[in-house]
Amino acid sequence: MDSLFLKTCRGEVTATKPVWMMRQAGRYLPEYLEVRSQFPSFLDFVHDAKASAKVTVQPVDRFGVDAGILFSDILVVLPLLGINVEFIPGVGPRITNPVRTIDAVENLHNENPADALPFTKEAIEHSLDLLKDRVPLLGFIGGPLTLASYAIEGKTSKDLQETKKLYYTHPEAFKALMTRIAETAGEYLRLQALWGCKALVVMDSWAGHLSSEDYANMALPYTKLAIEIASKSGAPILHYANGAAHLIPQIATLPANGIGLDWRAPLAETLKAYPNTVFQGNLDPALLFAPVEEIKRRTREILKLVADRPHIMNLGHGVLPGTPIEGVKAFIETVREG
Fold first, then answer.
1. How far apart are CA 15 and CA 111, in angstroms?
2. Which of 36, 62, 264, 300 is catalytic?
3. What is the pLDDT along the chain (338 residues), one digit of tens a residue?
4. Phi and psi torsions of 58, nearest 5°
5. Which of 145, 184, 194, 241 is paired with 293 by a 20 to 30 Å CA distance?
6. CA angle 40-72-333, nearest 5°?
């Protein structure tokens, strides 16, 4: 398959930039909500391969974006290690057996993703059937630091208190856990390519909560390991970290084909500093609530900055719940107009 998206991942400059959105299959879409309402729990939804494929393709059908991303969740790999994940309505994910000691790390399981996650393979197959080679399908994982933070904290945490505590007080346990998670995540990502995904994405939601020094020790080596394992598939890999403008010098050393920027990263300065890097982003997702003309103006500003280089148009984070369809259309149509 050849496409605007894959050409850009290879570093080719295209007159029209490829565009897709993180969380493009999500709660802002009425057709997504219709499918979601059929399942009592989020995990039931994720584990249903046909439902996953159906919502994966919805934004491609509605907006004509240049890539579909498999609908799943970053935490599906944790149960492979014996880490129990529950999704509580209105609350979010909860880990019933947090990993905070070396004994807990040593007692982790070692299930093969190919055996334990058949619904992912089936969802990819169903998605490819529905896409009919129109655009590439993207697979994804959470970054090792983000996955570990859930395993350690037991829930969503924006200060990563328990994660940093484990790193500082039991570095051997932290290293062992991060290595296991990185290996599992990298293999799962590699398999997604083997099963049919044409490109891969590493999403490190909580990396931005680390200082540059801590990121270099707590996250970077393990993200590199996961990407190196996944890169054996030959599929291009994008890396995105939220709130991580201060970490770009380190992220740029990763063996990824492109780097996603959140909306807080100064785009013009970053492009100038890294003239040979493929970037993705970075329109503020909240801007899609703005009047159409303002969305178009701000999108054109980005297009002007990236006109002479390979660049993937995207938001600086995922589509927000309640985002108006008209705002999404304005963004995508402006990219199409060039």
1. 45
2. 36
3. 789 999 999 999 999 999 999 999 999 999 999 999 999 999 999 999 999 999 999 999 999 999 999 999 999 999 999 999 999 888 889 999 999 999 999 999 989 999 999 999 999 999 999 999 999 999 999 999 999 999 999 999 989 999 999 999 999 999 999 999 999 999 999 999 999 999 999 999 999 999 999 999 999 999 999 999 999 999 999 999 999 999 999 999 999 999 999 999 999 999 999 999 999 999 999 999 999 999 999 999 999 999 999 999 999 999 999 999 999 999 999 999 98
4. -55, -50
5. 241
6. 110
Concerning whether 298 is annotated as a catalytic residue, the answer is: no
Q: Is 188 a catalytic residue?
A: no
Residues 100, 177: Cα–Cα separation, whole Å: 9
Task: Tell me whether residue 29 is exposed, middle or buried, using C-beta atoms within 10 angstroms of its C-beta: 0 to 12, 13 to 18, 19 or more.
Answer: buried
CB-count burial class (<10 Å; 0-12, 13-18, 19+) for 292: middle
Q: Could you confirm whether 36 is annotated as catalytic?
A: yes
C-alpha 142: how far from chain center: 6
Q: How many CB atoms lie within 10 A of CB 56?
A: 25
Start-to-end CA distance of the chain, whole Å, equals 23
Q: Where are the alpha helices (DSSP H) in 170-247?
A: 171-194, 212-218, 220-230
C-beta of residue 137 within 8 angstroms of C-beta of residue 212: no
The tokens of 243 are what? 């709130």
Q: Are 32 and 54 in contact (CB under 8 A)?
A: no
Give the active site residue among 28, 32, 66, 73: 73
d(CA 213, CA 223): 15
| Fold of the 4-337 domain | TIM Barrel (3.20.20)
From start to end of the chain, where are the E strands? Answer: 68-69, 85-88, 92-95, 137-142, 199-204, 237-241, 258-260, 279-280, 311-312
Catalytic residue at 284? Answer: no
pTM, entire model: 0.96
Longest dimension (CA), the chain: 57
Q: From the candidates 28, 150, 167, 188, which is the catalytic residue?
A: 150
